[in-house]
Specification:
single chain, alpha/beta, eight-stranded parallel beta barrel, elongated
Length: 687
């Protein structure tokens, strides 16, 4: 290249056609004291490559220094790495989207389902064997039908950017299953491409990914990508030289100012992208815009997002990264979700991201886990979590849907393991069980791991229903981890990042208890979609709204009386109830009509034994009809149950019940077992 504009080298190849393979060599000083690690012997990937031809299997020649040299990375390795680095490929950009357009599902109607492209269908019986674990497999009718009947409106795909398996993992005979080690921010990984497995063109994974997105959109399901812009696969100063390090190490990475041999590591992965440099920011913006405009994705979940906001050392809520995104007319319209922490000092930033951003609410996760485990003193904190976490999001003008509520995610126990293990069991990872979190807030219900004890298994099943019901009845955006609705277990492994096998792959062969859990989950997601009072766009006020007879939100204790300050401060309180007034929502639908819903009563008891709960009093012509009780395997009794206000209802130990206020003698509308998410619009009812 001989042309350079604004510090960028460029060249035009008029005869370049799709399928052309290419890579770079970059010449410059090897001056580590200045942060420069140029090495022309090392072939380099294009950071803007739209496709990479194959897996990157690290070879010693791909390191800029001589492995084993006493000077370590200060030495210079002159071996040519071109035989081992897969090449970048020009792609054919033509694709028939057939009118596909962004779905733009409102946040208040969004239900997220986090999944791994391979693990989700690797064992799916309705997916052809050769197609399992691929983009094409995810687009199969039976797979999409499962998502639809589950009420999913958006799939959140774990990283699909082209990634690298770390050398230390290869040396242990393991792999990077999760994929949080990106190197190609524009390139879908071909490992998940059925077409490439079948000998398709070098860019076949691009077409297959687009086809998957189109099929999901046709089913009304958005696609959110889990993106890893906080660090790259080149690791720390002892990592390989395969892209950014060899192109401009000092610009792309945050270096230690006092010794530029080393990298600032806010991620625990060896390096941190330099969000202070305009070209690094441009790279990320260009990548995001490409995935929206060319690949039609609907949003992003930013891994360790606090690392992207570090201007100097402290996390800066108004950093350049946020400023640029908020001003971008394309990116600002997508769904933006932060994992609001990193591993650096002051990196835990739940509740501190700016407007436009939703957040994985780790405080919600911990509070709900602790409550159902039976921990003391959590009732007041739980009240905030159930109602959208106004203490975290209301102060800066955000809405309840800024909170992405979750109980489990890829990182940690599955739901089944959360109620089956007190301790992690990560021996299969080869790190002497030293990896993974130790603070899991889990409870094994009396026995560690699998058991034949029917009482323990019954309690575990009820706890799973408690967690799923709580998630779907909380204000905010619910997120399910794939397989939790079917009792998926990782046998106590809470850090299965390196397990590309049956430990992480979903098992679709369900026994009766898992079928019941799946049906229960479908029932709860139907309730979420059917009741706008569970999906409010505004925070509760705790007062009468627009002349409603009752306040929009009231809290009750077990005797049916309203909670007092002493009740909130009682560390031994393990039960709570909240009434959501359906006629006090104070919101309008798309046509400007006021939204009116049923009034619901949620009763939660984490007491170790049964309790008697007195239902709140109401006029004599109404009664409380039981809709859900987690004591039952399917979440509902065989016969209709209704009680007048002031009547008692027996709550099983550690259980949740949901009641609906209805006119007495009105013919009940029993809930169907068939998942239906649309209904005839009634006056005053949300469309």
């Amino acid at each position: 290249m001989t042309e350079r504009t604004n510090y960028v080298w460029h060249v035009y190849l008029p005869d370049a056609r799709p399928g052309l393979l290419y890579a770079y060599r970059v010449y410059g000083p090897f001056e580590i004291s200045s942060g420069h690690r140029f090495n022309s012997a090392k072939l380099l990937l294009d950071p803007y490559a739209k496709a990479i031809e194959g897996d990157i299997n690290l070879n010693d020649s791909m390191f800029g220094y001589t492995i084993g040299d006493q000077n370590e990375d200060l030495s210079l390795d002159a071996r040519d790495s071109s035989a081992y680095l897969p090449k970048c490929a020009l792609i054919n950009t033509k694709f028939d989207w057939e009118g596909d357009a962004p779905l733009r599902t409102p946040w208040s109607k969004t239900l997220i389902y986090e999944l791994h492209v391979k693990g989700f269908t690797a064992r799916h019986p309705a997916v052809p064997e050769k197609m399992r674990g691929t983009y094409a497999g995810l687009a199969r009718p039976a797979v999409i039908e499962h998502l639809k009947t589950l009420g999913v409106t958006a799939v959140e795909l774990m990283p699909i950017h082209h990634f690298v398996v770390e050398k230390h993992m290869l040396d242990r005979g393991l792999t990077n299953y999760w994929g949080y080690n990106s190197i190609g921010y524009f390139a879908p990984d071909p490992r998940y491409s059925y077409s490439r497995r079948q000998g398709g063109s070098v860019d076949a994974q691009v077409v297959e990914f687009k086809t998957m997105v189109k099929q999901l959109h046709r089913a009304g399901i958005e696609v959110i990508l889990d993106v890893v812009y906080n660090h790259t696969a080149e690791g720390n100063h002892m990592g390989p030289t395969i892209c950014f390090r060899g192109i401009d190490n000092a610009s792309y990475y945050r270096l230690v100012e006092a010794d530029k041999r080393y990298y600032m590591d806010y991620t625990g992965c060896g390096n941190t992208l330099n969000m202070v440099h305009p070209r690094a920011i441009q790279l990320i913006m260009d990548s995001l815009r490409y995935w929206i405009q060319e690949m039609h994705v609907d949003g992003f979940r930013f891994d360790l997002a606090a690392a992207l906001a570090r201007e100097l050392h402290e996390v800066d809520r108004l950093g350049a990264f946020f400023d640029v995104i908020h001003q971008d007319p394309v990116i600002s319209q997508a769904k933006l979700i932060a994992e609001p922490w990193d591993l650096g000092e002051g990196g835990y930033q739940v509740g501190n991201f700016p407007a436009l951003w939703a957040e994985w609410n780790g405080i919600y996760r911990d509070t709900v886990r602790g409550f159902w485990r039976g921990d003391d003193g959590l009732v007041s904190d739980l009240a905030y979590r159930l109602t959208g976490s106004s203490d975290l999001y209301e102060g800066d003008g955000r809405k309840p849907y800024a909170s992405v509520n979750f109980v489990t995610a890829h990182d940690g126990f599955t739901l089944a393991d959360l109620v089956s293990y007190n301790e992690k069991h990560n021996e299969a990872n080869g790190e002497d069980n030293q990896d993974g979190h130790n603070h899991n807030l889990s409870w094994n219900c009396g026995v560690e791991g699998p058991t034949d004890d029917s009482g323990v298994n019954e309690l575990r099943a009820r706890q799973r229903r408690n967690f799923i019901a709580t998630l779907m009845l909380s204000q905010g955006v619910p997120m399910l981890q794939a397989g939790d609705e079917m009792g998926r277990t990782q046998n106590g492994n809470n850090n299965a990042y390196c397990q590309d096998n049956k430990i992480t792959w979903l098992n679709w062969n369900l026994d009766e208890s898992h079928e019941q859990l799946l049906e229960f989950t479908r029932m709860m997601t139907r309730l979420f979609h059917e009741h706008p009072v569970l999906r409010r766009r505004k925070f509760f006020q705790g007062r009468r709204i627009r002349g409603s007879e009752v306040r929009d939100l009231v809290w009750f204790r077990a005797d049916g009386e309203e909670m007092t300050e002493d009740d909130w401060n009682n560390p031994l309180a393990h039960s709570i109830a909240l009434r959501l007034a359906g006629d006090a929502i104070d919101e309008v639908d798309d046509h400007g009509a006021h939204i009116i819903d049923d009034t619901l009563l949620i009763v939660m008891s984490a007491d170790a034994g049964p309790i008697t709960f007195t239902l709140p009093t109401h006029p004599s012509d109404v009664e409380w009809e039981l809709i859900v009780d987690t004591r039952f395997p399917l979440g509902r009794p065989a016969k209709r149950v209704a009680r007048r206000g002031g009547a008692e209802y027996r709550m099983e130990a550690r259980s949740l019940a949901l009641f609906k206020l209805r006119k007495r003698n009105k013919r009940p509308a029993f809930m169907s077992n068939i998942a239906v998410f649309s209904r005839r619009r009634r006056p005053g009812r949300e469309k």
